[in-house]
Automatic annotation (TrEMBL):
Keywords recorded for this protein, A-Z: FAD, Flavoprotein, Monooxygenase, NADP, Oxidoreductase
UniProt xrefs under Pfam families: FMO-like (PF00743)
Taxonomic classification: Eukaryota, Fungi, Dikarya, Ascomycota, Pezizomycotina
GO molecular function, one term: NADP binding
Cofactor(s) this protein requires: FAD
Protein name stated in the entry: Monooxygenase
Superkingdom to which the source organism belongs: Eukaryota
Length: 494
């Protein structure tokens, strides 16, 4: 009995105090008030991605009206926000509902084992770097994101080890780094590169994006005309204003992405024309802004109020499309014969995918390999009892997917209590195991997704094993849909 006193017992343990973990905690308090819970956070503060990344200009690449919580509206008159404002919003939201009192910081989860005898999870934690702790719970929630916090993606750049200047990676940015009046080359073409260029140009001498292949970059006003109209017409009711603006951001991006999927060539033409109008005469759309794929086949990059294009027009920023031949002590030589002469190279080449934060998981002592398993409804894992994970969308805010998961799992836990069920396990039928075709969890063709595919579980092509589709469908499923097909519901044997 003395040993049991050292075990921290809860109904639910959430891993991760980022946007997903905070949202899950709120939904548990709201919909399952009878359940006890805690959040284990490996870092020193709330925030997840927004606590880790410190590079200049770090900001949301989704609108805050849907990236923010539905239960605590984003009140600023700007759809895009920088990292510090997002962290403050998350901290204020957590404090408002007492969620911050449920977080154990600097608690890194090493291993979690499910016992089919006790129907509970046993979780081994390293606290504050050296203290070993044990937690126990009935339901285990992984809100750990999808990438490795400790190691960035290492994309091969021939000869990079020869470079005598500074090499920086956005994931571990040195906030003391001096780039005043320096020539900076950013290797990469994703959202991070698009963010960095206009935020480095005010101090740097010149900033160049070097991309192997181009991306779509669209300007997004911090406040558009429709939002201004909604605010003018709802001056008498802040709640109505918040609701209408949120629904605008739910509906418009959905319609745009669906149009792009159904009419890809037409969407490509429209987007290309929009980009062309923003480019200075010195920058050609082809090849620099003429991707080989159609809009939304990979994630579209957005820049607030066109700051990226403004930097190009001012001449402080530029873009090169080509393949690196080699890097020397002070030069990047391209296969096409061009040379760049940077003082600083920023390797914005993507993230290293990592599922469940690298936690080692087992069932009855036997190792559980995530990559071998299929997902159930995009939120539970095949053969893994009483556990859920959060993954968002590639064409909408991450938080929307997180909230759909939270509401479905809360509904499931309430139903378990009503039916005296102690264990829910997703299972494929023998027929599904025989005929189901594998599909990717993240429907993106980005290099970092392709490289990290082996680290992620799989989606199927049928039934409850399909990947996420879109928010409206998923939230309806969470509220009213079937939560039993494809799962075993087991009661405690007396």
């Amino acid at each position: 009995m003395a040993a049991d006193k050292a075990i921290h017992d809860y109904d639910v343990v959430i891993v991760g105090a980022g946007i997903s973990g905070i949202n899950f905690a709120y939904r548990i308090q709201e919909q399952c008030p009878n359940l006890s819970y805690c959040i284990l956070e490996g870092r020193h503060e709330i925030g997840g991605t927004w606590s880790l990344f410190k590079y200049p200009g770090i900001r949301s690449d989704s609108d805050l009206y849907t990236f923010g919580f539905s239960w605590r509206p984003w009140e600023e008159q700007s759809s895009i926000a920088d990292g510090s404002r997002i962290i403050n919003y998350m901290k204020e939201s957590a404090a408002m509902y007492g969620i911050d009192k449920k977080i154990d910081y600097n608690h890194y989860v090493d291993h979690a084992n499910y016992s089919s005898t006790s129907k509970k999870w046993s979780i081994d934690v390293t606290a504050n770097g050296n203290e070993q702790k044990k937690y126990r719970c009935k339901f285990f929630l992984l809100c750990t994101g999808y990438y490795d916090y400790h190691e960035p993606l290492k994309s091969p750049i021939p000869g990079i080890e020869n470079f005598k200047g500074t090499v920086a990676h956005p994931q571990f940015w040195d906030t003391e780094m001096d780039y005043d009046n320096k020539n900076v080359v950013i290797v990469g073409s994703g959202a991070t590169a698009i963010t960095l260029l206009p935020n480095l140009t005010p101090r740097a001498n010149h900033v160049t994006i070097l991309q192997r292949s181009p991306s779509y970059v669209l300007s997004q006003p911090k406040e558009d005309k429709l939002e201004k109209l909604i605010r003018a017409c709802t001056w008498w009711s802040k709640p109505l204003e918040h609701k209408l603006i949120r629904w605008k951001w739910l509906l418009v991006p959905f319609l745009v992405s669906q149009f792009s999927y159904k009419f890809p060539l037409r969407a490509r033409k429209i987007v290309s024309d929009v980009i062309q109008k923003q480019l200075p005469p010195s920058v050609s759309r082809d090849p620099h802004f003429n991707p080989s794929y159609n809009p939304f086949e990979q994630r579209v990059c957005f820049c607030p109020d066109g700051d990226f294009y403004q930097a190009l027009r001012e001449g402080k920023g530029s873009i090169e499309t080509g393949v690196v031949d080699t890097v020397t002590a002070d030069t990047i030589k391209l296969v096409n014969g061009k040379e760049l002469h940077p003082d600083i190279i920023v390797t914005a080449t993507g993230l290293k995918l990592r599922f469940a934060g690298g936690i080692s998981v087992s069932v009855d002592g036997e190792n559980y390999n995530f990559a071998d398993k299929f997902i159930w409804k995009g939120q539970m894992l095949e053969d893994l009892p009483n556990a859920a994970f959060v993954v968002g969308y590639v064409d909408a805010s991450w938080t929307l997917g997180a909230d759909a998961t939270a509401q479905l799992i809360c509904r499931m836990m309430n139903q378990m209590r009503k039916e005296n069920v102690v264990e829910v396990i997703p299972r494929r039928t023998e027929e599904e195991k025989k005929y189901m075709t594998e599909e990717p969890l993240l429907k993106l063709q980005s290099t970092y997704v392709k490289k990290g595919k082996s680290a992620l579980p799989k989606a199927g092509n049928s039934g409850q094993w399909r990947a996420r589709s879109f928010y409206y469908k998923d939230i309806m499923m969470a509220w009213f849909g079937d939560i039993k097909t494809g799962t075993e519901w087991n009661k405690m044997l007396v």
